[in-house]
Amino acid sequence: MITTAMALSPSTPDTTTIPAADRATDVAAAARDRAARLEALLGDPHDPANPHGIAALCAADARGEPPAPTEELLTRAGLAAEFVPAEHGGRLTRADLLATTLRPLFRRDLALGFGFGITSLFATAPVWAAGSARQRGRTAELLLGGGRASIVHHELAHANAILRDELVAAPAPGGGWTLGGRKDVIMNASRADAWVVYARTAPHRGPRSHSVLLLEPGELPAAGVRRLPRVPTPGMRGGLFSGLAFADCPVPADALVGRPGEGVALALRTFQVNRCLIPGVAIAAADTVLRSAVRAVSAGRTGPPARRWHKPLAGVFADLLACDSMATVALRALSLLPDRAHILAAAVKYVVPDLLREDLEELATVLGAHGYEHGSPQYGSLDKLVRDLPVAGLGHAGTAACHAVIVPQLRSLAERSWFRAEEPPPELFRPGADLPALDYRLLGIASGDDFLSATLAGSAARLAGTRGVGGQIAVLADLAEAFTGELRALRAGCAALPAGRATAPDPAAVILSDRYALIQAAAAVLGTWEGQDGTDAFLADPAWAVLALSRLAGRLGIAAPELPDSCVAQLLDELLRRYRTGRSCDLDGSELTR
């Protein structure tokens, strides 16, 4: 077992003088190494005696308490440095590598990942995007010292408890602000060393209605702020949520992040990282449930599981690879195409959780009675993830917020982008390619350009010559053409939307948005398959892409070609191989602690 003192490397290596190819390998290898160290540090998740295993984490959740021993372990290991950009002394270089590093944490418990630190990343995003040098330095110092930051959301339409109510800041006569209001459900509010508040600073609705304030509780007058009791929630029950109430609380002028009225724009820009990262790490939690289902149907058998389980197990495995393709492409786009990732980030945010929820239902049928073993070290992950996943995605409010990004763009995409935009650089899909560091300052808002749909059209064209030759590659070509045809139909439907209707929460536009998001998932699968360099023979083979696209086609009602039996057989064989050798069920296939 790796000791906590050496668990995670203390810093990101200086790569400024290293050639690009070597630099990419070095930075990615460092992230994989930290992930492996974290995996070993947390130990066997299925060991009932492991204080950081599934049984212990489920027990803390049932008590309504954070898992203190595990959080202390992670603090001593310095995991919070993953949330601080490298230029400020942390380890954060790229969002896709951050997901790689954090997956061991989320593989054990989604709530642990949120409660320990990912919330700090989300909260501090506007500081990295628009904060002053003093604010960035102080925030980095706080997190690197083991502190936490909490985000106090503004109120949204379709609000749930987390997004209901907001704080109001008014200019104070002598300068600064006077903050008031109450918000009852805030993650880590009672444990945070900094609060990042999206406060209303204008009475009217609009793009300039809110501003961001960076507050440190110890610098506020005790009479101006009150911490409210913990709030029970149906998911993530480990005592993470409580509230804050402000009454005529003076806030210094230098607490303002960016410019007055910039809060909505900062939220739209920086929430892209949240929307890509949450699906990227949630895949690891679903991976654990898939592995428990394989365990349930393999126990006591020397051969493969009963035939009736082949399709659901192989199908869910294919879905995880499709979800990982979409999430990874979106995470990499934040570095490579930061001004054009906005729409894709919104799509991945609700497509991947929706697919994972469907997969959990499918796996529940495989698990059978084992699925009711709540808190079990072997099978307790299903029940907990079913409860936690909707909270992670902010439920219906989160989906509505993503629709609000995509729907207004549909008509413009149909008229100006689809079948006209250029394909993205191949580095977007190429494993090991050198990418720029994530820079929050460069993140833009919807540009009207859809690079993934260009990937779909380009891939279909490149595969067209294999149609009719037989085998899996011909089926893949037919599927690519079927999704391209669906994009043509979508273009016609979106171009016919009246301008006013496209910007309203109209059911017809929302349905078109849902179909578009699934087409984006299909494009990500094709791009990821084409981007393989042959190092991984399984991913270079078309079987996984064929099965993944067939399942996406079924969800869209697209007429798909007949699926070769070899696809299910190949995916099942790979799944069983990974289960028996202790490898993850994602694109990385990383080694797990057993």
Q: How would you describe this structure to a colleague?
A:
The structure is a single chain. The protein is of the alpha+beta class and 594 residues long. The chain has 19 helices and eight strands. A hairpin with a 5-residue loop joins strand 2 (168-171) and strand 3. Helix 13 crosses helix 14 (471-495) and helix 14 (471-495) packs antiparallel against helix 16. The longest helix has 36 residues, at 263-298. The protein is globular, with a radius of gyration of 23 Å. The two termini are 12 Å apart. The model is unreliable at 1-7 and 9-23 (pLDDT under 50).
Share of residues in helices = 40-55%
Query: How many separate helices?
Result: 19
Number of strands: 8
Classification by helices and strands: alpha+beta
Strand content: 5-15%
Coarse morphology: globular
Listing every helix as H and every strand as E from the N terminus to the C terminus, the arrangement reads: HHHHHHEEEEEEEEHHHHHHHHHHHHH
Uncertain runs are 1-7, 9-23
Biggest sheet character: 4 strands, mixed
Distance between the termini: 12 Å
Strand order of the largest sheet: 1-4-5-8
Mean pLDDT: 90
Quick structural gist:
The chain has helices spanning 20-42, 54-63, 68-76, 95-108, 110-130, 133-144, 263-298, 310-336, 342-367, 381-392, 395-406, 410-416, 451-463, 471-495, 499-502, 507-530, 537-540, 543-556, 565-581, and strands at residues 149-152, 168-171, 177-187, 194-200, 210-215, 225-228, 241-251, 256-257.
